[in-house]
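User: My collaborator sent over this chain with a note saying "see what the structure looks like." That's all I know about it. Can you take a look?
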Amino acid sequence: MILLVQDYQIVLYAMMHFILLIFGYISSHLAVIKQEERKQFDRKLWLYILLFFAFGSVVVFPLFDIGRYIFLKVWEGFAYVFTFIASKIGELLKFIEPIERERQEQESSPLGGGEQDNYDELGPSLMEIIGPIIYWSILTLIIGVICSLQSVFLKINSTK
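Assistant: Without extra context I'll predict from the sequence alone. Here is the result:
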C-alpha cells in the first residue's frame, strides 16, 4: 500500500500524537495529586509546553527531508553490511561440499537426463544433512537468550 499523504502531514500527525500523549500524562498526574499541591501547579506550564512544541515543529519541519535522507542511508548501510556478511558466509559454505560428489557429477553422461539420475544416486549433500542441525541450533540459542533475559528481568522486578 502506498502512502498518499504529504511529508508535512506525517510530521503534523506525529506531533499531534505526541502532544496528546504529553497532555494526557500531565492531566493524569494532576488528577491524582492532592488539591493543595495542584494549586502550586503553574498555569504557565501549558504555555511553555505549547511553545516548546511549536518551536520543535518549526525546527523539525525543514530538517525532515535531511533526516529522512540520513535515515535511509544508514538503513542502506545496514543492509549492505548484512548482504556482505551473508555473501562471505555463502563463500565459506561452498567449500563444504564433498570432493567425491563433484567428481561423480563431472563424470556423468553428457546427455540430458544423466545428471539428474546421478544426483539421485549420490544421496543428500553435506549441507542437506547439517542444515537442520544448524537451524535448530540457532533456534535453541535464540530461545535460550530470550529465556535468560526474561529471568534476569523477572529477578530485577522481584527485588523492587
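A starting point for your reply to your collaborator: Helices lie at 7-32, 35-39, 44-93, 99-106, 114-122, 126-159.
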